[in-house]
Amino acid sequence: MLRLPGQTPILTAEGVAALDEAIDVLVEIAAPLPLLTPYRGLAAAAAEHCADLARTGEASHFGSDGSAPAQRVERYGKWRVATAENISYGGESAFRIMAKLLIDDGVPDRGHRATMLDPEYACVGIAVASHPVYNTVAVFEFAAVFEDALAIAPPPSLLSDPTCLTPNAAPPDEGTGPPCAGCGERIVRTGTRALNKEWHPECLKCAVCGDVLNGDFFTKNGASSSMPILTHR
């Protein structure tokens, strides 16, 4: 039983063992993980599922329309290499939500923790909503590489839904986007994240053949340098 001052006691599945294991895993991480970059499209996908769970009272990765996480993400942009979804129910604060996912009590494969600590995921979108059964629900959408369809806004019904607590971010103003790692020019509308940098889609090219990387690609060390490079599969 987890007892915190002023909060409802929580019956755990594994007791302190899962917490100790999570601490050991975090201590063993040699270097800080790369910062995640928030994306409007991923946040919209998370907000859509949050609002759906708030309306139905369900606890599922599948939407009431039968959609899977990857399908919802694809409504607001294009993911590449890998994508994943974490959902937390009942956290009273951001700290409690993050701690719950990292400890992953009662989850045999520690899938939530593995996703949170996977350095491959560089892009994220998060939404939180009230839930009729668990009080709150938080949805995290992750992607290794994401091309944000900034021109696509969430459905009007989602934006007006009072149960969704995460507002939709406005598109960046002209010329205020991050610089492209390839050409140095500002990214105004659609960008791709790879090697912890932002790129115009047309500037993200294979280091071996020079062609644009339109599909999945590998990250590997260069032949004459320890710096990673991008290549076709």
UniProtKB/TrEMBL annotation:
<feature type="domain" description="LIM zinc-binding">
    <location>
        <begin position="178"/>
        <end position="233"/>
    </location>
</feature>
<keyword id="KW-0479">Metal-binding</keyword>
<dbReference type="Pfam" id="PF00412">
    <property type="entry name" value="LIM"/>
</dbReference>
<keyword id="KW-0440">LIM domain</keyword>
<dbReference type="InterPro" id="IPR014044">
    <property type="entry name" value="CAP_dom"/>
</dbReference>
<keyword id="KW-0862">Zinc</keyword>
<dbReference type="InterPro" id="IPR001781">
    <property type="entry name" value="Znf_LIM"/>
</dbReference>
<dbReference type="InterPro" id="IPR035940">
    <property type="entry name" value="CAP_sf"/>
</dbReference>
<protein>
    <submittedName>
        <fullName>Allergen V5/Tpx-1 family protein</fullName>
    </submittedName>
</protein>
<dbReference type="GO" id="GO:0046872">
    <property type="term" value="F:metal ion binding"/>
</dbReference>
<dbReference type="Pfam" id="PF00188">
    <property type="entry name" value="CAP"/>
</dbReference>
